[in-house]
# Entry
Amino acid sequence: MNVQSNQTQANYIGRFAPSPTGPLHLGSLIAAVASYVDAKSKNGIWVLRMEDLDPPREPPGTADLILDQLYALGIQWDGEVLYQSSRINAYREILKQLSKEELCYPCGCTRLQIKAMGSVYNGSCRNHTVSLHKKFAIRVKTFNNLIGFNDKIQGHHQQNVRKEVGDFIVMRKDSLFAYQLAVVADDSYQKITDVIRGYDLIDSTPRQIHLQKVLGFKTPKYAHIPIILNDKGHKLSKQNFATPIEPTDGNKLIFQSLKYLGQNPPSSIERASTDEQLQWAISNWDIHAIPKLANIRENPKRM
Ligand code: GLU
# Structure
């Protein structure tokens, strides 16, 4: 499939953008299933982007492992995988653009200093130069205004980024590009029209819309799905030792994911192949059935 030429015409381009810090677990799988099925239910394109911008946190081989897990479950992406590690020059250009427009500045403040500011960065480096002998991050200037969007699941969400977050980092002190800059650069580069991801990122969205506005990029539609908490109330994550998904449990996992997403899959497809289950989901998809919640407690008995 020639995604590049299709991407200019497609009405819907969705994406899944895992960070290869660990294999997929049920929580990340649910985000993949939701964005994949939503895209395919609208005859859309669904691309995969590997957010591999933080090598110290990425065990070797994890990106390939994630691709193998998706492939084994029959969740097939369109076109080539985009690796953020191949996009550094594009991020540099964006930083240059921000700097030319005096929309960013170096900041040498430490975590401790920011904590003392009440954890909202107060912009203290905006007006004075940082010693270039010291390590510094780059922050983008924010404005004192409300940035809102209509989440397709959660409804209206808004934030005054200046007051609630402050000028935020686009390049870290260790010279790695920050997630906020890279995600905005690539959602625009890949012409993403619809972002579906976990609720834990909903508060990043106003920052991303701010960057899109100052850079002249389009804002996609957003939908944030509830995140799954383990029995201790923690988000399923590698740090919390979430069990990596096993492709041999494929149909059990897809069935569980659809249940968490409120899709009410019939028991007749519980033991069907993952392809059949995904096909059922595409034909019967109802995004409005997804619980309008920040999180859901994992409940193996109910599943
Ligand atoms: N890479 C992020 C993660 O794995 C997701 C980014 C996004 O969907 O915007 O949590």
About this structure: The mean pLDDT is 92. The chain has two domains: 3-87+189-302, 96-181.
